[in-house]
Design goal:
single chain, Arc Repressor Mutant, subunit A, 2 domains, 5-stranded parallel sheet, 4-stranded antiparallel sheet
């Protein structure tokens, strides 16, 4: 959803101030105090906006930016930091941050920066993919099964989208791994790992549609078809 914001800030008072303000103007906020907590949340769902402090208990926010962008490049990353040196701004932007806001700042300015990023990164055109009872909105990262919005993990979403893009083609386990997990994945040789994710995806689709669209092609891989 375009109104979801992940706030990674260890100053609890500031974190709550930002969260309360954004919630009052229609955003849904998730909070984290460390990079580890932020990473755990981001691995579970997509966030269109991440507000990222630099000085955190378990590391520097700079180190988190490539991780975010490698998962979903459309995420708008706004650094919020008391560090106002030009070098810090340049380093953040070079690493992939979209904006840099120096503390203290006005909350209305933060809202304006968030709104600008959302307008830039999420154009109004709708990108809908449909297959029988399944509908994917690739812009909003939403999946509907039989007109009901169903929550998918990031990997489940990536797998389903890859199947959509390759309907009726036999996809090997290796190709699925390379597309979704990256060719250097430590799990590349673990067929049970991909099998588990495929089964979860199948079960979720079948629960809501009554259909099994992901067919096993024994000795080769999988095929997505009616």
């Amino acid at each position: 959803m375009k109104n979801e914001v992940l706030i990674i800030e260890d100053d609890i008072s500031l974190q709550k101030t930002i969260s309360d303000y954004l919630k009052n103007i229609g955003f849904i906020c998730y909070e984290a105090e460390t990079l580890a907590e932020g990473k755990k949340l981001f691995e579970k769902k997509f966030f269109p906006i991440v507000l990222l402090d630099l000085n955190l208990p378990d590391g520097v926010g700079f180190d988190y930016i490539p991780f975010i962008k490698s998962i979903w490049n459309k995420t708008g990353v706004i650094i919020i930091s008391a560090r106002d040196k030009l070098e810090d701004r340049v380093d953040g932007l070079n690493l992939g941050a979209d904006d840099y806001l120096v503390k203290p700042f006005h909350l209305s300015e933060l809202n304006a920066r968030i709104s600008a990023l959302l307008r830039r990164n999420f154009q109004p055109e709708c990108c809908l993919l449909k297959f029988n009872e399944i509908e994917i909105d690739t812009q909003a990262q939403i999946v509907k099964l039989n007109d009901n919005e169903v929550e998918f993990s990031r990997k489940e979403f990536d797998l389903l989208l890859f199947f959509f893009e390759n309907q009726k083609k036999v996809l090997t386990k290796e190709s699925l791994f390379e597309h979704v997990w990256g060719e250097n994945s430590a799990f590349m040789d673990n067929s049970d790992f991909i099998y588990t994710h495929i089964n979860r995806l199948r079960k979720k689709i079948k629960t809501h549609t009554g259909q099994n669209y992901i067919k096993t092609v024994h000795g080769f891989g999988y095929k997505f078809e009616s």
